[in-house]
Amino acid sequence: MTTRREWGELPEQVRGAVESRTGPVVKAESASSGRNSEFAATLWTSQAVVFCKGITTASSLSVMHHNEISISPFLPRELAPRLLWHVEEEGWLLLGFEHVTGRHADLSPGSSDIPLVTDAVNVIARTPVSTNRRAMAVQWARVLKAEIHADPPDQASPWSVENVGELTAWAGRAPEHMDGSALIHTDLNPANFLISDTAQVVDWAWWRTGAAWIDPAFVLIRLIAAGHSPAQAEQWANRISGFRDADSDALTAFAASVLRLWERRFAATEATAAARVWARYRLGES
User: Fold this and answer.
1) Residue partners of 160: CB distance under 8 A and separation at least 6
2) Residue 278 CA neighbour count, 13 Å, CB half
3) Residues 25, 99 contacting (CB under 8 angstroms)
4) Got the DSSP string for 11-34?
């Protein structure tokens, strides 16, 4: 997590570089959410409103902002806010986005947001990417190699500890099913959907390419966290063609791998509890 800076705390030359794109900033309101940018704020000028975020270029997290720059030309207008400009000045990298209004998605059963989220996930699956591939299978294998053979953490559930051998065996198979050329956001949680009359998707810092079932599977876990049963969540995911066509073993392996990774990194969250519920369901347990 980064330390958040206010507009007035940015170096004068950096603010000047931004204002060369926007015109004089008359008001700046820092964002209350987000953890990977040292600066994130809505900027008002006499002519427009933009959302600006950025980071010092020396930070290891600056790669995330470069990732957003690289994918922005391929994102449809109806899917994501446009990247209008980016500036690199005095050791800072700042990105200026079209300002859009909306609230975070409600994924609870019966929510009217779910059809909008479904539409957005389908648009992602249909979006071609003709830039350097960032293979999800390679990245997932790298992370799993470092994590899954370690002992479960102290905060792991008793069920996960009792079944660690089976979970690890399944999890190790996940990368072999993840190859593909589909665009994947990889972090489709409710906070990354902005809901108005449509659902727009923000924070593309971790985009990858891979099998088209991966993003629906991430959303499926969030649906379980919001109160859906695993069967109901999978029924939703089957509305996405990439998920509907997925190999059953691929989904089981992925569910096990997500649980092993998330339980080691943030065991006590609702998302990890939901991943456990899905893994148990995939392994034939209640």
Assistant:
1) 152, 167, 259, 263, 276
2) 34
3) no
4) -HHHHHHHHHHH--EEEEEE-SS-
Q: Where are the domains of the chain?
A: 7-98, 104-282
Q: Which residue has the tokens 């990245």?
A: 139
Beta bridge partners of 263: none
Query: Dmax over Cα atoms in the chain, in whole Å?
Result: 61
The pLDDT, as a whole number, for residue 2 is 67
Q: Cα-Cα-Cα-Cα dihedral of 76, 78, 79, 85, to 10°?
A: 60
Q: Which residue is it, tokens 């947001």?
A: 113
Residue found by looking up tokens 């050329």 in the block: 181
3-state secondary structure of 240: coil
Q: What is the pLDDT of residues 88-139, one digit of tens each?
A: 999 999 999 999 989 999 999 999 999 999 999 999 999 998 766 789 999 9
> Helix 270-282 vs helix 230-237: angle between axes, to the nearest 10 degrees?
90
Whether this prediction's pTM lies above 0.85 is answered by: yes
Distance of CA 203 to the CA centre of its chain: 7
In this structure, whether the domain defined by 7-98 belongs to CATH 3.40.50.12780 is answered with no
Rounded Cα–Cα distance for residues 162 and 168 (Å): 12
Give pLDDT tens digits for 187-204.
999 999 999 999 999 999
Give the architecture-level CATH label for domain 104-282. Answer: Alpha-Beta Complex (3.90)
